[in-house]
Amino acid sequence: MNKNKMASYTLIGFYAILLTGCAVGPDFQRPVPPDVAGYTSTPLTTNFDVSPTMLGDPQNIIKGERLTKYWWRAMSAEKLDILIGEALERNPTLMAAEATLRQAQELFAARAGSTLYPQIDGNLGGQRQRFNPGTLGQTGEAREFSLYNAGIGVRYTFDLAGGNRRALEALAARSDYQQFQLEGARLTLVANIVTTAITQASLKRQTGIIENILKSQENQLELTRERIRLGHEEPDDALALQTQLEQTRAKLPPLRYQLQQNDHFLAVLVGKAPGESLLPSFTLEDFTLPPELPLLIPSELVHARPDILGAEALLHASNAEYGVAISKLYPQLNLSADLGSQALTTGALFGGGSAVWSLVGQLTQPLFNSGLPAEKRAALAAFDAAAANYQSVVLEALRNVADVLRALENDSKRLEALSAADFASEKSLESTQRRYRLGATSYYDLLIAQQQRLQTELDLTEGQAKRLVNTAAFYQAMGGGLCDIAGNAGVVSKAQSAERKASR
């Protein structure tokens, strides 16, 4: 077989690889969902009891339902919805996440533009030269002349092994990761605002209750001192009451500080300085308890939580980068062509006989490079690390859901007990008040009954707020109604689209 036929067959083989070949390395497969039916090892209560108190309404966990995007509207007033809308527009953390996402998308576009299509450059130049015939062993005087040139160059690297396509796939997956980071930041921001608003309402009520307890204790101390003056009490009784009063008074400064700190945090979440403007004030009456809580099963949860989807995107990127490392072991074909004109004067630059051109093809095959196998092994190790990280994120998500479900279950039981205690203390106070009006008991006993009533109300307030906070935590644990852009709901991610192109 002569050399011309061999060259022809070789060229045909390269074209066959170009037209029918696919990217080297394994195509990405989404991880198998966890093979568990529930979140806890023992049966979970799905119907929470009713308590005869505010925020003691029944709640039912409904399995297999997907959350709505605006989940917080099921438990709050309009002013919280307005506050969240403002925060979604002004929060600097979200702005940074959005900018990072745009950066990732533009990096993908830049790499796609430089690898998927030929690169075309135009050039126009001129130079002044002095030529000495003696340098070539010729005789004659040295001459000076000008040389002008204009041309267009085209360059393209054929992606025979699919390395460029795998690199694009990796960049697309990292763009998806930034998308999920943004969704996670939004979810965290909304959950923080809801929790902070609930905490504000709880702290305000607790502060008011303690102030009432303090007033009652002051009246009790004043009455005791009067009784001591009349000889009906011992001085030690006043000292004991003074100690109790000051202990109650000492609770107010840290509680007020928590409330102020909470307000500062809420302002920053909305994207404002703490002293910039007044924010809405919330009370526990502003919130309602959602009657139904949609629970996703574990196999659906992995497609709904942004942290899990982000870990999956990183796994996808590592898989594609492993393919890039493999592709470096295969041949690379580079083609370049230049077409232009060259003349000694600008007038003759585009005239007849000034055309020049060149066509260059270069095939490069690594023969010995000990670093390439090591790079391949490093990429495989990075994939293994990403797979382990994905498993860790999934396990943490399952633990998070289990903790929240148990918290809701115990919150309901605790609120039921606190409600019963509050009801009992209320009836005890009413009885003491009737007896006091009839002269059957003293004002001193009435003050003690009032303090007991306020103390149970204080505990009840904390229990009501805790149930609301854990309800918000439940929505956050379920992914906050995030639509899975990695395949669910008929939406195809950038990484999946790039992978499909790579596998063709």
TrEMBL record:
One of its GO terms (molecular function) is efflux transmembrane transporter activity. SUPFAM superfamilies: Outer membrane efflux proteins (OEP). It comes from the Bacteria. Coiled coil: none annotated. It is found in: Cell membrane. It is a lipid-anchor. Keywords: Lipoprotein, Membrane, Palmitate, Transmembrane, Transmembrane beta strand. GO terms for cellular component: plasma membrane. InterPro entries: MdtP/NodT-like, OMP_efflux. Pfam families: OEP (PF02321). Gene3D superfamilies: Outer membrane efflux proteins (OEP). Signal peptide: none annotated. Belongs to the outer membrane factor (OMF) (TC 1.B.17) family. This is RND efflux system, outer membrane lipoprotein, NodT family. It comes from Desulfococcus multivorans DSM 2059.
